[in-house]
Amino acid sequence: MEHDPKRTFLIEFLLFGVACVWALNFSIVKISLVDIDPMSFNAMRFFLATILMWGVVLYRREWRPIRKEDWIKLIMLGMLGNLMYQLLFIFGLERTFSANSAVMLGTIPVWVAVTAHLVSDEKMTRNKAIGVTLAFVGVILILLGKPERISLSSDTFVGDLLTLASAFVFGYYTVLSKGFLKYYPPLQLTTMSMSVGGVALVIAGIPWLIELDYSAIRPVSYGGALYSGILSVGISYIIWNYGLRQVGAVRTATYQNLVPVLGLILGYLILGETMTTMQYIGSAVVIAGIIQTRRK
User: Using one digit for the tens of pLDDT, what is the confidence trace for 252-263?
Assistant: First the structure.
């Protein structure tokens, strides 16, 4: 596929926007989870994301016939990238510290690079290997600069393992998605995957949805579900898949490591939080890693 430089720049700019949305999402989700349990929240946001996807599909009329041999594969893809990833992440986060989770999720580009090299035509290059390593090291430096340090105690072992598994699952999902994007448009693939995951998460969340006290939920918490469902999941996943097709899996995945950098910047601008020297260094290293992956 020929890569138009202007289109590539636009996609990378949008991927930067996705990182901004995801950086804000952590704080917004925390606010919503005061009133809504994790299972109900996931069911709500994926239901909203799925409705949004189908609305855009009907408007754009961007759809190719689903090949007979792809039906089972697409269902498994949706279960992997939405249901399995979300459940591993939620239950992992409950059993470990946020700093630990950030490190584990920081391995996503590593899993993408290794998996892509093994099972796809996107092979590891020297610049990609250096870039992914730098981005991951930068995330660790950012977290080492925080007051709450990373814990390696046995109390968090299960949570760390679950979160690490979620990172691997999302990395594998990313690589598998790229293969389908050779035939299906990004919007269609996102919609199909989201539909499978959305239905599964709603079904899994039914017991919690029944018990939820909707009258006690504040408007801001409903707003968080809207933000997370429409922006953080719906629109962001579409852009993510466009990125996979346009610039490749590894280059797209490194934008995941911009999330803690942007979280620091937004915390400074919005909340007046201070940044330590180590966090400045870590942010610079992450950015250097992303630039490195863009080199041929």
Answer: 888 888 887 887
Structure tokens at 208: 């919690």
Q: 3-state class of 86 per DSSP?
A: helix
Angstrom distance (rounded) from CA 58 to CA 293:
36
**How many whole angstroms separate alpha carbon 292 and alpha carbon 255?**
12
pLDDT over 60 at 191, yes or no: yes
Closest CA relative to residue 173, chosen from 253, 251, 236, 264: 253
Domain tally, the chain: 1
Instruction: Output the six-digit token pair for 128.
Output: 């990609």
Q: How far is the first Cα of the chain from the last one, in angstroms, to the nearest whole number?
A: 16
CA nearest neighbour of 237 among 102, 61, 65, 46: 46
Task: Catalogue the long-range contacts made by 64-69 (C-beta closer than 8 Å, 24 or more residues apart).
Answer: 64/183, 64/184, 64/185, 64/188, 66/192, 67/183
CB atoms within 10 A of CB 144: 16
What digits encode the pLDDT tens for the residues 169-186?
999 999 999 889 889 999
Residues 6+ apart with CB under 8 A from 30: none
In degrees and rounded to multiples of 5, residue 77 shows phi and psi of: -60, -45
Angle at which helix 85-94 crosses helix 38-60, to 10 degrees, equals 150
